[in-house]
Amino acid sequence: MKLVIDKNGNKYLWERGDLHTSLGVIRSKDIKNGVVKSNLGNDFLVFDADFLDKLEKIKRGPAILNKKDIGQIIAYTGIGQNSKIVDVGSGSGVLASFLGRISKNVVSYEKNKEFFKIAKDNLNFLGIKIKLKNKDIKNGIDEKNLDLITLDILDPWNVFHHARKKLKSGGFLVCYLTNINQVIACVKHLEGFYLETVLENIEREWLVEKLKVRPKHHGLMHTGWLLFARKI
Question: Torsion-angle region of residue 39: left (phi > 0), alpha (psi -120 to 50) or beta?
Answer without folding.
Answer: alpha
